[in-house]
Amino acid sequence: MHPESEFYQISGYRAHSNGWFKEYDDRPTTKELISMKTKLFRPGGRNTPVELVLGILPSGASYLLITSEQMHEFTHKHRLGVRREPWRANDFLSLSPIYFNDVEELSAKIATYKQRARNQNRRDLEKPLDNSQANRGYVGMGPDVVHYRAYFEQQRMLYRLLKRELEPGKVGLAPPPWLGGVRVVSLVIGQWTVDNRRRDERLNDPRLVDVGWTDALFPPFFEQLTGSPVHLELKSPVKMINPGSKDPYFSEIIEDDQAGLYQRLRNLLSHDANTSGIPLIVLVHDEDMARSVLSRAGIALEQWSPGLSNLLPLAPVTRKSRHKVEEAMPSPAVLPGPCIVDMQKLVKAVMQTNPGHTVPHSAKVLHMQTETKTCAGDDSLLQLHMWTSMAQGLAIDEQHKQRSSHHPNIAQVLAPPQAQANADADPNDDDPNDMPPGPLPTVEDDFSDDDDW
Question: Under a CB-based contact definition with an 8 Å cutoff, are residues 19 and 37 in contact?
């Protein structure tokens, strides 16, 4: 499947579906979309959810989309017209799958794009803008604003590509050469929490207590959810201990001075993606601090990119093909440099509030656990669990609602066996990794040319 380069908007401000079936009434469109049973709409099978596309602009505004192939099939079936030019794939920072089981779920999503009535007295003076519940906080923010909602959705796209649950072309991607796996290093830098210096001073001269990391290969980690975290305690003339810290339980414990730490970081992150064919993603909690420490360790960061945009380049528009991209995609032979993913930005994007200042605090903000004691090594494994939980979950707005209503009664995601509160209880009852991630169909390896099953 060639990458889709054009997408059509369902419902909302200046939607392509406006006027279908019934003016100012999305219910018939909703019903007919859910009734579609073909592979284009249900790639996992007739009884799996409908798969549409969620596009997020640089401002953070989102739109519910269908591909040009879905559009052609749907409008041909119902003899509908299209009044406007399509969205281009590269209008968006992210294109990710979103799933709907029934009319109620799709109706609830579409309702968030409903336009509010404008004040008649100001109608002639105001520029028309998207004032829907979904987008009124993001429109009009200017072209230079990069919102991390798209950054969040990139993680969901990556997860489904690695699990082979998503056809790359459907979300504007050429088939990536790295679908066999990606290397993910979860790095946690334990700062001295009682350091009261200004932020710029702490970035210029970090005072570290411990550093932890877990090195994992995905997708195998999705199945095992285990790793071999390392907890390094810094030697220093003055022993610094963070209040609220805990002893490592899952981690190998080592002790080294600053020079030894820097050498270990250089060894850990020495990675040639183009030789191995496996790209590197580094998870951190506070990207600015991580860059400061890694730079001081002598690691060249010029080719490190924030987020996953370089790993997931969306289709440009070509002159040769209106609907498909054939020759203008970047060469898949050259993999990008390391991608650095800031967990604080992901947590803030999905929870719409400030993240925690440590990994366990952010896990609490995510409603995954209540424990906030820190240990850099164990926290690096926890950070991988947090990332996996967000990546496998629902689309960002639906995941926000789901997490906000979830109140865990467990202390720790990675609690040692003796810390479990009730030995008679089912340990899966409150496991945050069992929060329903939403329906995930599996893409078949070979589709026939027929539209129907």
Answer: no
